[in-house]
Amino acid sequence: MSTPRQLAARRQLLRRLGLITPSMLVLAVFLVAPLAIMLLVSFLQPGDYGGVKWGQYSAEAYINFLYERDLDDSLVFNTDYLGIFQRSLGLAVMTTLGCLLIGFPTALYLALQSEKKRNLLLFLVTVPFWTNLLVRVYAWILLLRNGGLIDSGLGLIGLGDGALGILYSDAAVMIGLLYTFLPFMVLPIYTSLEKLDWRLVEAAFDLGANRFQALKRIILPLALPGMLAGTTLVFIPALGNYIIPELLGGGKALMIGNLVQLQFGSAHNWPLGSALAFALFSLVLLALLFNGLRQRRSTEVRI
Amino acid sequence: MIRRTPLALSVLLALGLTGTAQAAGTLNFANWSDYYPPELLKKFEADTGIKATLDAYDSNETLLAKLKAGGGNYDVIVPSDSFIQIMVQEDLLQKFDKSQLPNLKNLAPTFQSLDFDPGHDYTVPYLWGTTGYSYDAKAVPGGVVEESWKAFFEPPAELKGKVVALNSADDLYPPAARYLGIDVCTENPQDAKKIQELLLKQKDMLAMYNSDGTIERMAAGEVAMHQQWNGAFHRAKEQRDSLVYVYPKEGISAFIDNFAIPKGASNVKEAHVFINWMMQPENIAAASNFAKYNNAIAGAEQFMDKALFEDPAINTPKDKLDRLRPFQLCSPKALKLRSTVWTKLKK
User: Fold this and answer.
1) Are B166 and B206 in contact (CB under 8 A)?
2) Under an 8 A CB cutoff, do B61 and A50 touch?
3) From residue B11, how far is each of B55, B69, B73, B127 by CA, in Å?
4) A182: Cβ–Cβ under 8 A, 6 or more apart, which residues?
5) How far apart are the C-alpha atoms of A135 and A132, rounded to whole Å?
6) CB B88 within 8 A of CB B122
7) Do B346 and A252 touch (CB under 8 A)?
8) Which of B86, B169, B210 sits opposite A168 (nearest CB)?
9) Cβ contacts of B22 within 8 Å, gap of 6 or more
10) Neighboring chain A residues of B346 at a CB cutoff of 8 Å
């Protein structure tokens, strides 16, 4: 015999399941299924001119990632793809650090404003999202190009000579990445600073801390969850970004995103493309795992 | 491989034109963006009573993917020469009923038989061009460059950082092979290695690899030398008269975009009417004038803009016709070498 309490608990469970099902279905259809297809494709033989040979399995794509076949068909260690991953990783780390350096003071400034001004400033931070990213990147092309707005502006004050030479370089890619991902850093840090109990800072001052010590010992630790969230939000998309290096970069060095695109395009190697995408995916998972562990540790400390 | 300016406005215009339904049937035409004059479609509708719509795509890969997925429902498409054999192999194109294409007789002699479709069973040429390189006579030492790939692949020290190559293995690898006297479809890794060395050496001299904005860069004088399509060169020269287009003696890639009817087209008869109509000199000339590329129809020259037809970059001089190299579909093995070289070049 079930007691009324057990019945109620069961009903509660069913209701929860019913509420969870739609989101689980969305995840299954739009996340798990595509990943499963990608995994399958990465273990197939490439078709002659794109596509795959269904039913012909091979781990060649994963072997190719680290090794290449020499003339006598022996496997030789090959760092080409690792080098490209390393470069993308470096760029993503730089972007994240840059966003932190600019984003934290910005968020702190926002959090210290009066509520009315704060809302206006927050609104301004989100304005770029109203326009498609592609359009904004093209706008940067117009800004950065030789004879563009920045170049001619510098010329007006006697600094430029009509050959700025920033566009189509790594500097342009860096500017584009910083610009694109900055709001993703500012907003989470702002959220954690907004909730900050400023009496704690006042207490620190009362106890003799100077501004720097208050920042370091009180504000930074309390803003850490926001910084970690922002780091994840910036690092992951920056790592696989395709469009910004493609449009602003000089094309002399591949990034992961461009390398994957190449495999599905003129290199006609879909399995390698899928395998590379999986390697990228595992890097992302590692980053998430690291972040999750950090967060768990910081909550443990607080308990 | 995107060589058209990315304006899909033509689609909107074409949609605006198709308000009047007529009994004579309909035609769904798909072409590269900004590669077909909307007014010409209006003329086609007036001439034949067929109601036509124009859809745009941005690359051969996109078109192939659409056809493979069975989507699109196009009656006439314009794939490049490089994709014809693949599409035929994949059974995506249908054979023409040549009795409905009497204007095939208008094809200029050079185009009567093409390697990728010798009997014009599946395709007829739309527009064609070449992938050579251009330079600014005012910016190169001596003011003139030998008609060879040498200046592009091994530029003089003065041009360091002032040369741009197209950002695609399929555009850069074949001329490098030709310059070294190697078969563009070589399956020999030693040959590929020589090409790789040449490209790596050239990379130090290059400003960048970029296939977009070639017109603006040359017209503004930002760089001195640029691997370029001849139609893009023509537009750049309109803005800067000191530009020169080179037909290298080692050979220059020619590309042809072609009309074809995909399998599963619902208006096959209208598709034939359209292709036949496009092979009339005055109609194809209007397309040339719009897109700034040459066509393959004899007699079209009298309807072409004088400046366009008299540009040797567009209308290849007779003594240089033998330098043109049609597209060659390489074996998967050769293409694999090509993409390995490309990855090593950019690792």
Assistant:
1) no
2) yes
3) 6, 22, 16, 19
4) A99, A102, A103, A106
5) 5
6) yes
7) yes
8) B210
9) B45, B49, B50, B51
10) 84, 251-254
For residue A212, the tally of other CB atoms under 10 A from its CB is 8
Radius of gyration of chain B (CA): 21
- The interface predicted TM-score (ipTM) is 0.82
How does pLDDT run across B228-275, given as a tens digit for each residue? 999 999 999 999 999 999 999 999 999 999 999 999 899 999 999 999
Contact A144, A178 (CB under 8 A): no
Q: How far is CA B40 from CA A204, A263, B15, B293, in A?
A: 77, 38, 13, 16
> Using only C-alpha atoms, what is the Rg of chain A?
25
Q: Taking CB atoms and an 8 Å cutoff, what residues of chain B touch A50? A: 61, 64, 86
Residue A260 · residue A276 · CB < 8 Å: yes
Q: Per the confidence metrics, is the pTM higher than 0.90?
A: no
> Which of B20, B108, B35 has its CA nearest to residue B77?
B35
Pick the closest to residue B347 from A1, A189, A88, A124 (CA basis).
A88
Residue A267 with chain B: CB contacts under 8 Å:
169, 335-336, 339, 342-343
Segment B236-242 long-range contacts (CB within 8 Å, at least 24 positions apart): B236/B134, B237/B311, B237/B313, B238/B307, B239/B215, B240/B136, B242/B136, B242/B137, B242/B138, B242/B139
Amino acid at residue number B34:
D
Domain residue limits, chain A: 4-77, 85-302
Stretch B145-152: mean pLDDT: 95
pLDDT of residue B8: 42
Q: Does A253 touch chain B (CB under 8 A)?
A: yes
- In terms of C-beta density within 10 A (0-12 exposed, 13-18 middle, 19 or more buried), how is residue B346 classed? buried
Q: Distance between CA B347 and CA B344 in Å, rounded?
A: 5
CATH number of A85-302: 1.10.3720.10
Tell me how far apart the alpha carbons of residues B82 and B256 are, in angstroms, rounded to a whole number.
9
Is residue A83 less than 8 Å (CB to CB) from chain B? yes
Q: Please, is B146 exposed, middle or buried when counting C-beta atoms within 10 Å of its C-beta (0-12, 13-18, 19+)?
A: exposed
Q: Which of these, B319, B318, B320, lies nearest to B108 by C-alpha position?
A: B318
Amino acid at A194: E
Using a 10 angstrom Cβ sphere, with 0-12 exposed, 13-18 middle and 19 or more buried, the burial of residue A209 is middle
pLDDT tens, residue by residue, A231-265: 999 999 999 898 899 889 888 888 999 999 889 88
The residue in chain B having the minimum alpha-carbon distance to the alpha carbon of residue A252 is B346
Which residues of chain A make contact with B2, given a CB cutoff of 8 A? none
Mind listing the domains of chain B with CATH numbers?
6-126+256-309 (3.40.190.10), 129-254+311-345 (3.40.190.10)
